[in-house]
Amino acid sequence: METPVFNCKNADDVMKAVKDYNVSFVQFWFIDILGVLKSFQIVPSELEGAFEEGMGFDGSSILGFTRIQESDMVAFPDPTTFQLVSWRPTERPVARMFCDIKNPDGSPFAGDPRHILKKVLQKAAEKGYTMYVGPELEFFIFASSSEPKIIDVGGYFDAPPLDLGNDIRRDINFNLARMGIQVEYSHHEVAPSQHEIDMRYQEALKMADTVITYKVVVKEVARKHGTYASFMPKPIFGVNGSGMHVHQSLFKNGKNSFFDPGEEYNLSKECKAYIAGLLKHAPEFAVITNPTVNSYKRLVPGYEAPVYVAWANRNRSALIRVPMYKPGKEAATRIELRNPDPSCNPYLAFAVMLAAGLKGIEDGYQLDRPVEENIFHMTEDEMAKYKISSLPGSLKDATDLFAKSALMQETLGEHLHAAYISAKRKEWDEFRIHVTDWETYRYLPTL
Q1: Residue 68: what pLDDT?
Q2: Taking the CB of the first residue and of the last residue of the chain, which one, N or C, has fewer CB atoms within 10 A?
Q3: How many other CB atoms are there within 10 angstroms of residue 277's CB atom?
Q4: Is residue 89 packed enough to be buried (19+ CB in 10 Å), middle (13-18) or exposed (0-12)?
């Protein structure tokens, strides 16, 4: 049986679909503050009550949620996210819905990343804006999860037989389509065993849900092929890491607010202020868009990873790139933020990007000239001339900047901001005291 794509509007639509397709279980999905998927499943007979009253669970066991004395949380399913999971048998299919997490009194839970994004999107909506995003997630396919053993030596856009992941990518595309996710194109990436599948842009909340689904589908399909898919930013020393470049734009009254044919580069004043906001606050939100110790092994010069805070029209060494304007396609005008990686929590990542861009618009930030020269080849004096700074160089530095940021605390709220800092400082301490293979190799023979 072909997996149908649903467009449910409400609980009644979901109840009908569950009955019509003889659904065996419904998975309730939500994520912790780091973007790790959490799930539990219910039988169809419990679904009506779940829509009315939610499903309770112990929040004290979820990272960044609540303390044990305040542990009761309630998950309310969002009927618009109902789909059958594409990697499970179809004779008694399993469905999934994303959930909004609430307190027992029905108020939104301050530590729910989905709520944080909704809150920032609502602020944008009050100004008339709708945010659209199109992230490009790269990933590696390895022989197993125990070591980064590559399965091919293909490079950028290589085809079989150099690209040995082609069949896996094709199955991923089919599975994404069966869950209503539109793929624009897919290909082998620069590094051996590295791949990219790009999805068509969507409204930000729907895209955040889609990113989580995408990552699950990629991993499940790879597993069925006897391989392991990893979204680790830099799993192999000496080759390119995996990024999650995020194309983004704001629309107002059905028109792209970033396009203005009367302005330089065809970019509106709002767009320029938005870019300036991202550039100013990128070091403060780097720990959200690049959230792991390993993230900062990718953010180094020489591997196509943007580490320099600047913007350009076509220059891929800059943090923000503006894809070339095409006459007649004004709606496609967008900017591309290039530093995020696929280990991030997409809800929080989209939220802090939008908050920074809106801050630029609200406060009238001025945008410096674009830097079209290759920044990787610049001297320190040349970088100073262009007023180019760098992103933080480690998880510790990124966490410290995040902790001091008033905009980040305002955007994420006191609860999530504090919980995130605590989690990242713990992660850094665990890394800091660990004795690595490099240290053993470097020091043991001589000391």
Answers
A1: 42
A2: C
A3: 24
A4: exposed
Structure tokens at 227: 């391989």
- pLDDT, position 328: 65
What domains sit in the chain, N to C, each tagged with a CATH number?
11-108 (3.10.20.70), 118-437 (3.30.590.10)
336 is catalytic: yes
Catalytic residue among 32, 163, 189, 284: 189
In this predicted structure, the answer to whether residue 33 has a pLDDT above a threshold of 70 is yes
Q: Whole-model pTM?
A: 0.95
Q: Which of 247, 281, 338, 417 is catalytic?
A: 338
pLDDT tens, position by position, 366-425: 999 998 888 888 888 888 888 888 999 999 999 999 999 999 999 999 999 999 999 999
The catalytic residue among 78, 196, 270, 341 is 196
220 in catalytic set? no
pLDDT digits (tens, 9 = 90+) for 295-314: 999 998 766 678 889 999 87
Distance CA 284, CA 348 (A): 13
Within a 10 A sphere around the Cβ of 203, how many other Cβ atoms? 13
User: C-alpha 244: how far from its chain's center?
Assistant: 7
Q: Computed from CA positions of residues 300, 302, 308, 312, in that sequence, does the dihedral angle turn out positive or negative?
A: negative
Per residue in 315-346, pLDDT (tens digit) is: 778 899 998 767 667 888 999 999 999 999 99
79-83, 133-137, 190-194, 312-316, range with the lowest pLDDT: 312-316
Pairing of strands 25-31, 94-102: parallel
CA-based angle 53:55:58, to the nearest 5?
135
* Residues above pLDDT 70, as percent of the chain: 96
58 counts as catalytic: yes
Q: Is-catalytic flag, 362?
A: no
Question: In the annotation, is 432 catalytic?
Answer: no
For residues 150, 156, 157 and 163, what is the CA-based torsion angle, rounded to 10 degrees?
-20
What residue ranges in 143-241 does DSSP mark as E strands?
183-188, 194-199, 202-203, 228-230
Token readout for 74 is 């309630």
Is 270 tagged catalytic? Answer: no
Please, is 107 exposed, middle or buried when counting C-beta atoms within 10 Å of its C-beta (0-12, 13-18, 19+)? exposed
Cβ distance 354 to 120 under 8 Å? yes
- Residue of 245, 247, 298, 321 marked active site: 245
136 is catalytic: yes
Tens digit of pLDDT for each residue in 154-191? Answer: 999 999 999 999 999 999 999 999 999 999 989 999 99
Beta bridge partners of 77: 99
Residue 316 annotated as catalytic: yes
